[in-house]
Amino acid sequence: RGRTVFFITHRLGTIKNADVILVMDKGSIVEQGIHEDLMQQEGLYYHLAQQQLNL
Question: Mean pLDDT across the chain, nearest whole number?
């Protein structure tokens, strides 16, 4: 509480419960939000999650 922590990871399970998730592709932020919102958008995060989280 009261601090900012950055996780840089390829393992989406590590950040699934984060307050804000930033998704980067080729050095640019392409999506941001919470897990549920990013899944509904069906963008890059969604496709990576499908592969990693076996959804």
Answer: 92
- Entry pTM: 0.83
The answer to whether residue 5 sits within a structural domain is no
Instruction: Examine residue 2 and state whether it is found in any structural domain, yes or no.
Output: no
What amino acid occupies position 43?
Answer: G
What integer pLDDT is reported at residue 33 of this predicted model?
Answer: 97
Total of domains in the chain: 1
DSSP string, the chain: ---------S-HHHHTT-S-EEEEETTEEEEEE-HHHHHHHTSHHHHHHHHHS--
- Flag whether pLDDT at 35 surpasses 90: yes
Domain residue limits at 25: 12-52
The closest alpha carbon to 43, from 15, 54, 33, belongs to: 33
